[in-house]
Design goal:
Distance between the termini: 37 Å
Shape: globular
Number of helices: 19
Largest sheet: 4 strands, mixed
Helix content: 55-70%
Structural class: alpha+beta
Amino acid sequence: MSFFRTVRNLFSIAELRRKVLFTLGVLIVYRIGCHIPVVGVDTAGLASLMEGATNLSRLLGYFDVFSGGALAQCTVFALGIGPYITASIMMQVLGFSVPHLEQLMKEGEYGRKVINQYTRYLALALSIFYSSMYVIPLELKGLVLFPGWGFRIVFVLSLTVGCMVVMWLGEQISLFGMSSGSSMIIFASIVARFPGYVIKTIQYARDGILYTGGLPGLNWVMACVIWLFLFAITLCIIFLEKGERKIPVQYARRIIGNRVYGGQNSFIPFKIQNAGVMPVIFASTFMIVPGSIAGMLAYKWAFLGELARSLTTQTGFFYNFFQFFLIVFFYFLYTSMVFDPKELAENLKKSGGFIPGIRPGNQTADFFDLVLTRLGLVGSMYLAGLAALPNLMVFAVGMGSMPFFLGGTSLLIVVGVGLETSSQLEAYLLEHNYEGFLVSGKMKPRGLR
């Protein structure tokens, strides 16, 4: 009954109800678009190609995880939100090196609007590039019913327009729905494949199908071990996401008239994992670029096929090493964009607060920078390690050529976005004096002494 009471409380708040229903409606529209095929493609032949063990099938299969099956079916939403995220990463990196963009980042709301517009233009260019590279292997493999420039133009136009629609849907979720629109779309794409993972696991365990390369088939014991391990990783992610470092803060007493203000003690919480799931999304999206280029050019230069395979094989050493490095890099990059130690120290000084034993001003800013660096080292390593651990586990138990499994990157994105969304729902409920989103009550963070 507690669960139904929590759901009733959830939908009793008009604003929250509108946000939740709007988000669900947009995600339904997105999933419908993921099933509208592009005209002129042999979808049956493409499905047969995806079941093979070629470099192209591995490449498309890796990208297909983040499109929710749209890429394998060659639908109008095949590119998903990937080009927009890649464009956002590029604009944020350029913002630190290009003086004009750096100035725009400091101009508040106006600067953000201009940068967002630049990001949309760059996403449009990337959509045209990705769709143009996608059409090449389709024609070479004979999967096009009527090849030629007419089909190429229609194909590129369909995927580009579809990507722009997905980008617009994501922006609508960010404005009127719950959580970040880009994160929710990727979350929906990955979750949409969960039933397929479960069904294939049951079928493969029942039939004991042999994998490519003569590896032993999947059995019930191995299937249970894999899913229990993924469940343990999920619990570990939730446990560490709530950890935080509390910085004690004191406020000086101020006498205004006949009243005394301040003098109380408080704290500033710094989470172990300050960047959320965004570094994982950035890293997985960024890895698409070299993998896609190498895979498409492998038809002309054969040696690039091995590079594409190593960049898209989730159980490979090079893939996990490259992903580990990118997650750590984007963690510190994202943290530097979100947290400004000097601004935080200045705001603390203006409010009359100080950290015991540290002078307000530059010393406080240096202290915040040191805390963020230390927490960032721990948080980035933990985040990158959890992303690689499920992949290495599947490889270690002899399932390295398994055609499906829930990778560490996908697992981190799903759990991370789910926690962020539940925290927002929790905040709305507590604001209206309800007991919280979880049946057990408020989600309490764990303090690090």
